Amino acid sequence: MEGRKIVDLVVPSEIVARGLREIFTDSADFEVGESFRDLSKAVESRLRILDPDVVIVDPSVLDFRSRKDGRTRLADICDSIVIALAVSGVTEDVLRQYDGSISIYDTGEEVLRKVRSSVDSRSLEPSQNEGGELSAREKEILVCVAKGMLNKEIADKLNLSIYTVITHRKNITRKTGIKTVAGLTVYALLNGLIDMSSIQ
User: Fold this and answer.
1) Is there a shared CATH topology between the 5-123 domain and the 136-198 domain?
2) pLDDT band at 1, cuts 50/70/90?
3) Could you give the angle at which helices 162-176 and 70-77 cross, rounded to 10 degrees?
4) Nearest one of 148, 118, 145 to 57, comparing CA atoms
5) Which of 113, 122, 145, 176 is a good FRET partner for 184, with 20 to 30 A between their CA atoms?
6) Rounded CA gap, 71 and 91, in Å?
7) 9 or 171: whose pLDDT is higher?
8) 151-158 vs 70-77: helix crossing angle, rounded to 10
9) CA distance linking residue 11 with residue 51, whole number of Å
10) Contact, 116 vs 29, CB < 8 A?
């Protein structure tokens, strides 16, 4: 794990948010950026801009029907590692969709260990041509991103899992050094992958 990772919190309980902030304050690997109490449209926009390394989210911020799609929703907002905060009323099915989970009953050491494990497992995902040319699949995904498609739309179009799309997007960002959709769109235009007429 290189450098301190930024962790943003989406936790409705101020007490829990303060406790997590305290745990990460003592860590050399992580620092808490911003803390939000819900997942409103304004918070979604803010997370898009911030693009933190890790988001810890209490699935109860989502209404009961949309909890099963919480990870997918966050994948469309940012490319962060998303860790669920296990609270009462959140089922194992919901928790399994996330990159990891922590419990409000975990010790500080357990929280840090679980978050490190999720970050390390993401960084071990294979990538072809690291730091080099984009693969054909990465170019295909870049074109979709430049056309304004969300991760779920790209996954559906290319018959991939949403997590595969996220991994490819991480690789695109690493290879190009560009994090924003606008920047990637300009990159695609300058490299002849799309033309102006194909941009929404």
Assistant:
1) no
2) low
3) 20
4) 118
5) 122
6) 14
7) 9
8) 100
9) 17
10) yes
CATH architecture of 136-198: Orthogonal Bundle (1.10)
- Percentage of the chain with pLDDT > 70? 92
- Pair of tokens at residue 140: 């295909």
d(CA 82, CA 179): 18
147's tokens: 């056309």
Q: Per this entry, what is the length of the chain?
A: 200
Nearest to 1 by CA among 139, 117, 137: 117
Distance CA 27, CA 37 (A): 23
- Give the three-class secondary structure for 50: helix
Domain ranges of the chain: 5-123, 136-198
| DSSP-derived secondary structure letter, 160 | -
What's the whole-model pTM score? Answer: 0.65
One-letter identity of residue 32: V
Residue 26 and residue 22: Cα distance in Å, rounded?
Answer: 7
- CATH architecture of the domain with residue range 5-123: 3-Layer(aba) Sandwich (3.40)
158, 149 Cβ separation under 8 angstroms? no
Q: pLDDT class for 129, splitting at 50, 70, 90?
A: very low
- Choose the weakest-confidence range: 10-14, 38-42, 166-170: 166-170
| Bridge partners, residue 7, by sequence | 32, 54
5, β-bridge pairs = 30
**pLDDT of residue 98 exceeding 70:** yes
